[in-house]
Amino acid sequence: MWFERDRSTVHSMGLDARGRRRLFPAETVAALRVLPPSESIALQDSLAELEADVLVEYDPDDPAIDHDEEDRFRMVAPPAEVAFPTVTSAFAESFSAHVASVPPRWRIDAAALAFELVSTFAYPHRVREWERTADVWRLVARRRRGSRRRRRR
């Protein structure tokens, strides 16, 4: 995590799947993969709240920020100490506790990484739900158009 010199932005270092594997045990990933869709989506929502809570703690306008020091952390991946412990249940509570235990410098990175990992499993469920909703509304529109045509004849 680093503060931008424009005094309005806080950045976290995003990681690809390989980088996330370094920070999350295989058991945790396997347990997340088999979560039911509703639990996966609820977990994603709670982690979004966690990430927002962590962001509120940071004040990019703080005059005490040493931007030369911040430049040392620009585009630096989180260290190994940010790695999550093995979790196979009570994900929201466990992830929140872990993020709180991480040094403040890396807290936003930890919260964002947990959100990104869960999102890889929750997103397909959300897409299916959006597609289902769109299909229903398309059918409703077709039926409404069709029923008007019959009435006009």
Description:
The chain is mostly helical and 153 residues long. Helices cover 66% and strands 3% of the residues. It is built from 6 helices and 2 strands; from the N terminus they run ββαααααα. The protein has helices spanning 17-23, 26-33, 37-57, 67-71, 91-101, 104-152; strands at residues 2-3, 10-11. Strands 1-2 form a two-stranded antiparallel sheet. The protein is globular and about 65 Å long.
Short description:
With 153 residues, the protein is an all-alpha fold.
Write the SSE topology:
Elements: E1 2-3, E2 10-11, H1 17-23, H2 26-33, H3 37-57, H4 67-71, H5 91-101, H6 104-152
Antiparallel strand pairs: 1-2
Helix pairs in contact: 3-5, 3-6, 5-6
Question: What characteristics describe this protein?
Answer:
153 residues; mainly alpha; 3% strand
- Helix/strand order: EEHHHHHH
Mean pLDDT: 81
Structural class: mainly alpha
How many distinct beta strands?
2
User: Helicity range of the residues?
Assistant: 55-70%
Largest sheet, order of strands side by side?
Answer: 1-2
Report the portion of residues in β strands.
under 5%
